[in-house]
Amino acid sequence: MVFAVGQRWISEGENNLGLGVIVGVEIRTVTILFPASDEKRVYALASAPLTRVQFQINDRIFHQDGWSADVLEVLEQEGVFTYRARCVETQAEVLIPEKALSHHMSVSKPQERLWADQIDRNEHFVTRYQALLNQQAQFQSSLRGLRGFRANLIPHQLHIAQSISQRIAPRVLLADEVGLGKTLEAGMILQQQLLVGKVERALIIVPENLQHQWLVEMLRRFNLAFSLFDEERCADFAPTEEEEKGVNPFETESLIICALDWLEQYPQRVEQIRQAGFDFLIVDEAHHLAWTEHAPSVEYQLIEQLAHVIPAVLLLTATPEQLGQESHFARLRLLDPHRFYDYQAFVQEQQHYQPVAQAVNILLNGQQLTDTDKNHIAALLTEQDVEPLFKAIASQTEESDHARQELITQLIDRHGTSRVLFRNTRQSVKGFPHRIYHQITLEQPKQYANAMNVVSSLGELDLKTRFNPEQIFQQIHADVRWWEFDPRVEWLLQFIKTQRNEKILVICQRADTAIQLEQALREKEGIRAAVFHERLSIVERDRAAAYFAQQEEGAQILLSSSIGSEGRNFQFACHLVLFNLPDSPDLLEQCIGRLDRIGQLRDIHIHVPCFANSPQARLAQWYHEGLNAFEETCPMGETLFEKCGEKLQFFLQNPTALADFESFIRQTRHMQQHLKQALEQGRDRLLEFNSSGGEAAQQLAERIAKADGSPDLVNFALNLFDIIGVEQEDLGEKSIVLSPTGHMLIPDFPGLKEEGITITFDRQQALVREDIEFLTWDHPMIRQGIDLITTGDIGKTTVALLVNKGLPVGTLLLELIYVVDVQAPNYLQLNRFLPPTPIRVLLDVHGTNIASQVSFNGLNKQLKPLSKNMAIKVVKMAKAKIVALLAKAEKQVPNLVENVLREAKQRADSTLSYELTRLYGLKAVNKTIRQSEIEALEQVREQSLQQIEQATWRLDSLRVIISNKE
Ligand SMILES: Nc1ncnc2c1ncn2[C@@H]1O[C@H](COP(=O)(O)OP(=O)(O)OP(=O)(O)O)[C@@H](O)[C@H]1O
């Protein structure tokens, strides 16, 4: 390929970019600008996926100023063409340098291939048409981006992924209870946004110890290859002595994972991230982002800075209120400052959820609305006219369900935390095993009692350590081995022995306790345990987790500090020992959540060894009998912890004062029940409507399951591989080996390795065998395979024989496939409204379009292939007729295109107008919604409608059909 500045080329893979112009040629690279879509690409010279555009004499070309001309001669100077042409309008002769050609010009000419005897096989034409139809269907499919991940189809996750990923730049707090799959949800949303081109560069910020888990999950579940960034890696990009400015390391990759802990230490990296143009941010374990008005934490401020410049933000936490309501509010504000503008207003709003939940309940129960119901609903949506929706509900047609749903969405949107917060609970998801609490009461050793007295009398008793008697003891006896006399250790050893075949996770509050306990188990009984805490390097931690996970020859025990194991997946174990009791209900939930998560198949046993009448025993009793926090999740735990604060602290400091303790527990239980009921009827009920997706989510999962391995997909894929020349060997067990051959149509089929790959269309098989590729419509091999066909020349022209005794011999039919296409900037996402759309025209000999009477498949069944020689002869003989028919078709196509555009505009208008109405509605309750935001959306709508208007159409492929009696 010889490139020169000013030449016009098109992208082979991305036809919709329009006509590109070469703007730079370096030693090894070529830079091409696509003005129609405002995209620039840099390719390696040797392998640029570009096709040179050269027009021929008599071709009609379009000038970028809007007029057209017919080519008379092609002149060339230093590789760049100038067209001598006759202007259609003025008939004047003009010289048009190729640089001045319209950027929107389509360049596909099947008829020229026909005249040049480039006639392809009939089945290739069929595959091409199917590829176009499939491409269109996939662009418009509501399942797009929701099928290709390697995981089970869990309705609430699919619902969240679907509803969030439809948005442009979503900003959401994913707050499902522990272990319900927030990582998976975030991955699905990201993958979907990447797939449709809404997002190109994503950053995931996680606690240090979760980096590898994210890396692995993104790769194995979503085929997304992230890179881990740390100081060492970034230091490589520092400026050399000669350079003034180094490279911004964050610009060198587009999918990056890094640790929050690291960014805190290196604020200059935060600035680099801000400048690196990420468009998607995920922050895991977001409950660490503490905030108060006067003292926002460093972590909070850091993420806030990034959230200012990164359009899409997902915050993940199972315990959003762990650091209090204010921090929770601040995180919501960070996501949507217009919706959450004032803390006091937020607190008040929380108290008024009940009437909203009641209104939603009325709508959900499916009965006709009474006047009182209507008044109640209308009072909550004063800013808009709800009458039409009430009418639709009363009509009891298909519209009524839609109208009910619409009203529910609006109520939740205006009055709930709605679009910003998603939270699923075990109660709504269901199907989880039970949690069983085992309290083990032991005698407190006198050494601990003495140490406690000494430390208290010195005034050095830190409230935080009172649940770790071993730490207090070590404050005064640093060298004495506490585990020699601590009965909890003896109990643990005996327990381990009785559970020889079980994995046991032991959580201590501090890393020191975990380390010393490891020594105790090893020295006392020769038990080898893995240790896991925040002071280990990431690699050591991953190694420890893997050692624990290993079935054979792995560690039976994992000794972990509480913060060290946060977010980790240990659901293969069902025994949890809380060697120290976590000092807050949400922390307790995080610990239990290591085992109580999706994939846990057995009941979970939670063992709490504690000393009689110790602070730990009191707290355990309060958790269990007051909150029931061991056996069920306790969403109101933190609220009660705060409410009961003083009294609880009294009992923890005076653990032997039992007189009022029972009544205090009863009071707590009473409050817990009361709050639970209020939450269920109010806030949580609203969140649940919003988050679980109900019946619709079930149906979504069923639809995806049905689409998995559908015959349409399997047939199309196998046909595609056949055409490309990929060898296929069926291995049975729902898997097929694909290998490259020496006679492939293209040298490199995307994703096909030299040594071959194994594929399956079956989700369960893909879950069991992670080494094989799981093919769905979303898989890159299928998507790029479709692109390869639709943007290349395969199947563009063919000639076939119609065996039909009823038709005179030699009757000519012309089947034409036109494609309507729009080239627009990516941010408009026009493909969702107007994907490349094939229009089929079937002309009889008189030029009448009979496509609606004769279906593609019906006709195809009656066709037989012709030898190439025969086909060439037929074309030669019928050329004049074909030319005449083509001219007739071109007159009919604009009307057909008009219909396609009208529908596309309707789709665009209703989607974008809906968004606008929502903003206007929100503005009515929240005066801080900026007018500029509304104007921006209005502009997107205007531009989208205008761009659709500018869509072009082209003849993509054609089939000449000639009849015979046999
Ligand atoms: N759809 C699914 N199919 C199969 N496994 C799943 C699915 N969703 C989640 N899991 C598994 O369930 C476990 C919990 O998921 P995940 O880590 O995403 O939960 P989480 O909500 O982020 O938990 P935490 O609150 O502890 O951070 C993981 O082992 C994950 O691989």
Automatic annotation (TrEMBL):
Its EC number is 3.6.4.-. GO terms for biological process: regulation of DNA-templated transcription. Coiled coil: none annotated. ATP binds at residues 176-183. Residues 163-338 form the Helicase ATP-binding domain. A motif (DEAH box) lies at residues 284-287. Pfam families: Helicase_C, RapA_C, SNF2-rel_dom, Tudor_1_RapA, Tudor_RapA. Keywords: Activator, ATP-binding, DNA-binding, Helicase, Hydrolase, Nucleotide-binding, Transcription, Transcription regulation. The keyword Cytoplasm does not apply. Residues 488-642 form the Helicase C-terminal domain. GO terms for molecular function: ATP binding; DNA binding; helicase activity; hydrolase activity, acting on acid anhydrides. It comes from the Bacteria. The keyword Chaperone does not apply. Interacts with the RNAP. Has a higher affinity for the core RNAP than for the holoenzyme. Its ATPase activity is stimulated by binding to RNAP. Transcription regulator that activates transcription by stimulating RNA polymerase (RNAP) recycling in case of stress conditions such as supercoiled DNA or high salt concentrations. Probably acts by releasing the RNAP, when it is trapped or immobilized on tightly supercoiled DNA. Does not activate transcription on linear DNA. Probably not involved in DNA repair. Belongs to the SNF2/RAD54 helicase family. RapA subfamily. This is RNA polymerase-associated protein RapA. It comes from Conservatibacter flavescens.
